[in-house]
Amino acid sequence: MRILVPLVLLLALLVRPVAAADASAAQSVIRTQEQALARDDGATAYAQAAPEIQALFPSVEIFMSMVKSGYPPVYRHRSFEFGAAQVEDGSIAQRVHIVDAEGEAWEALYTLQTQPDGSLKITGCSLLKTGQSV
Hints:
Blueprint: H1 4-14, E1 15-17, H2 20-38, H3 42-47, H4 51-56, H5 60-70, H6 72-75, E2 77-88, E3 91-100, E4 105-114, E5 120-129
Antiparallel strand pairs: 1-2, 2-3, 3-4, 4-5
């Protein structure tokens, strides 16, 4: 029993709701990218991506092509609303509820990490049509 209590406390610290400041910072980065995409401002959208993402898509043009073809609900949508956020092992996971240009509902899960320079960058985005299972 003595081991169980510290283990439960440790797990609670590893997976915890995001503090308001963490959620606000994450949402600001995501919103900056979302608004840049709406203006077709590839440079600003690309700047919100972590170095690992930029290494996979080594130019603004390649990144924008990937977003347009692989994430059309993120690229163009009717609504984009933040849901719950969590911190796990130093990463922030932020849910976003999206209604695409055709009126279909989607759930996006953005992941973000603090970079060595202190900035917060997007490390990934998983997209699933609402009602579909993984």
